[in-house]
UniProtKB/TrEMBL annotation:
<dbReference type="GO" id="GO:0004553">
    <property type="term" value="F:hydrolase activity, hydrolyzing O-glycosyl compounds"/>
</dbReference>
<dbReference type="InterPro" id="IPR039514">
    <property type="entry name" value="6GAL-like"/>
</dbReference>
<feature type="domain" description="Endo-beta-1,6-galactanase-like">
    <location>
        <begin position="135"/>
        <end position="457"/>
    </location>
</feature>
<dbReference type="InterPro" id="IPR013780">
    <property type="entry name" value="Glyco_hydro_b"/>
</dbReference>
<dbReference type="InterPro" id="IPR039743">
    <property type="entry name" value="6GAL/EXGAL"/>
</dbReference>
<dbReference type="Pfam" id="PF14587">
    <property type="entry name" value="Glyco_hydr_30_2"/>
</dbReference>
<protein>
    <recommendedName>
        <fullName>Endo-beta-1,6-galactanase-like domain-containing protein</fullName>
    </recommendedName>
</protein>
<dbReference type="InterPro" id="IPR017853">
    <property type="entry name" value="GH"/>
</dbReference>
Length: 593
């Protein structure tokens, strides 16, 4: 509070004659004469997934001088005054490219003629809205099918699965819709054998193989408990995935590669690896009642996997093709019903280019092209432009779906709050709406380290279990959008605003359930203030009751009061919904004739 200025209020931006206009109210404690005003407006641009090992919010402020349209000093009683300043916000603030979501920081400089300094007051967190955000949902225009949402059992299940005092609650958090988020896909990790030189004991584990086609099925007991817990709690689809062949058949008899090799698996061992996968799949179906719908033999083949910190093997594209066709032939011979899930690319750009171009290389192959119903990629290190390019590449192959099968933020430090949660759901939203992914799967269900890589965090000494907000935010998708659902078309008023793009920090996507009657809407509000959004749904119904479930700083998938939206009389249901600051809200309702 300087020079008699009590506070500054920045009114929400609006449009006038095609311009963005804002009004500032400076409430003055004392009379202030002979002042000059200058206004700078800064857009805080937020870019996701830019650093080279994960996702990070990188903010770059851009200052643009706003045009002052008018000033008026008004008396406000008790000797105080209010200075009203109206400004025109320059369109240059709305940038193109991969930036999305942001806010306006407005700085008013008040200069007194007899002083050499100025006083700068800033009202932060004012969202750029072209009026209020408006979304139109068309239930008759289907985009892509949704096969489900999941997470992996890597690096935790073989340990935490033995915690008899805590494992049931963890399984409930992950796999039930009543107590948790109801994952519909679970990736079971068949590990390649314990390596003493991998220093993190959670990143190495037992293999079932004892010798060629000889197995000890009592191994990996803890991870098998988690697998059965997922099955018992209703998980619909299971993936068997490996990051490496068993150590016995690798080139260096290790579960990670030596420096400079293009693969840690000799082609002479392709068939042994294929039969190893076939035997595991057959055993779990026959003896444990687990049907693996998908087998993923390769994981991020683009990286060298030579640092010895975890399992992994590189492969060239030619090797991916040759190994995959060998596995297909063995699966056919062994009558394995599981489909191959390939290639688990490390980032979206490998689908359409970056020296790999998996869409064309795999789907035009005369053997694989007719077999692969899904191509799998990970969302690490990916921009929205790369997502769009992958989506365009896959549009050439309409019979093949694209799945996102692994992502976490990969930033130092545990983030149990809404920063990580919002990064996660923004990545989900972008992968579903831009790349057109039919499935989205997280990486570590459970983490023990000081890193943003888990939905649930555990302390190995005390065995305390702490769900992160990211778990519940992910649940805004996983609990309500079930396998067999379909994403439907959604448009916003921002898409028709010329050069000014959606920078409001509000995103929305919509889905129909498997029976095409249940409507699911997921809305993300990243800004620090409550936001009112208008939702219009093309429908002949008179009214629709929506039930909200919200995740925010205070809430974890909490059910809220029902909302009723009414018909406008022209086959459109329309109403306003309130979105809490920095929150994710899922609205569900039933569309019926």
């Amino acid at each position: 509070m300087v020079n008699g200025i009590a506070d500054v209020e920045v009114r929400k931006l609006h449009t006038r004659d095609g311009d963005l206009v804002a009004t500032l109210h400076l409430h003055l404690r004392d009379s202030l004469e002979d002042v000059k005003t200058a206004v700078d407006v800064t857009l805080e641009e937020v870019y996701y997934q830019r650093n080279d090992r994960g996702t990070s919010k990188i903010r770059e402020g851009r200052s643009r001088e706003a045009t002052v349209l008018g000033e008026e000093l008004r008396e406000q009683g008790a000797g105080g005054q209010t200075l009203h300043v109206e400004i025109r916000v320059p369109e240059e603030l709305a940038t193109a490219g991969n930036y999305r979501d942001g806010r306006v920081d407005t700085t008013l400089t008040v200069e007194k003629p007899d002083e050499d300094r100025s006083t700068v007051l800033t009202a932060d967190g004012t969202p750029i809205f072209l009026g209020e955000p408006e979304f139109t949902i068309d239930p008759d225009t289907e985009c892509q099918p949704i096969d489900g949402f999941g997470a992996s059992g890597a690096w935790w299940a073989q340990n935490v699965g033995g915690w008899e005092d805590q494992r049931d609650s963890i399984a409930d958090f992950l796999f039930t819709r009543e107590k948790g988020i109801g994952l519909s896909i679970y990736r079971y990790n068949a590990m390649g054998g314990v390596m003493s030189d991998i220093s993190n004991e959670w990143r190495t584990g037992e293999t079932y193989e004892v010798a060629e086609r000889e197995y000890d099925w009592s191994r990996d007991e803890n991870a098998r408990w988690v697998l059965q817990a997922a099955n018992d709690r209703g998980v619909e689809n299971f993936i068997l995935f490996t990051k490496t062949p068993p150590a016995r058949i690798t080139r260096n008899n290790k579960t990670y590669a030596d420096h400079g090799v293009d693969s840690n698996l000799d082609p002479e061992m392709y068939e042994q690896f294929a039969r190893y996968l076939a035997d595991i799949t057959a055993h779990f179906r026959r003896e444990e009642g687990i049907e693996f719908d998908w087998v993923s033999p390769i994981n991020e083949p683009e990286w060298d996997w030579e640092d010895g910190t975890q399992e992994g093997s590189p492969y060239t594209v030619a090797q991916v093709l040759e190994l995959s066709k060998t596995i297909l032939a063995v699966f056919d011979e062994e009558n394995v019903r599981a489909d191959l899930l390939l290639p688990e690319a490390g980032s979206w750009d490998f689908i359409s280019g970056n020296g790999r171009n998996y869409a064309d290389r795999l789907l035009t192959d005369p053997v694989l092209g007719d077999t692969l119903s899904v191509l799998a990629a990970h969302s690490y290190w990916s921009s929205d432009e790369e997502r769009a390019e992958a989506g365009r590449a896959m549009a050439t192959y309409p019979e093949t779906r694209i799945w996102q099968t692994e992502w976490c933020e990969m930033e130092p430090g545990r983030d149990l709050g809404m920063d990580f949660a919002l990064d996660l759901v923004n990545t989900v939203h972008s992968d579903l709406t831009i790349a057109g992914a039919s499935s989205w799967q997280f990486w570590l269900s459970v983490s023990k380290v000081d890193y943003t890589d888990g939905l649930i965090y555990v302390d190995t000494d005390t065995r305390d279990v702490t769900p992160a907000k990211a778990l519940w935010a992910f649940g805004n998708y996983t609990r309500f959008i079930r396998p067999g659902a379909v994403r439907i078309d959604t448009e916003s008023n921002y898409e028709h605003a010329g050069d000014v793009e959606n920078k409001s920090g509000v995103s929305l996507s919509a889905y129909l359930g498997p029976e095409r009657e249940e409507l699911v809407i997921v809305a993300i509000n990243e800004v620090d203030s409550e936001t009112t959004a208008t939702i219009a749904i093309e429908s002949e119904m008179d009214r629709l009751v929506l039930t909200p479930h919200r995740t925010s700083h205070e809430e974890s998938l909490d059910a809220l009061d029902e909302i009723t939206i009414e018909s406008t009389g022209d086959d459109v249901l329309e109403g306003n919904v309130e979105l809490a600051p920095r929150s994710v809200t899922t609205f569900t309702g039933v569309l019926s004739d």
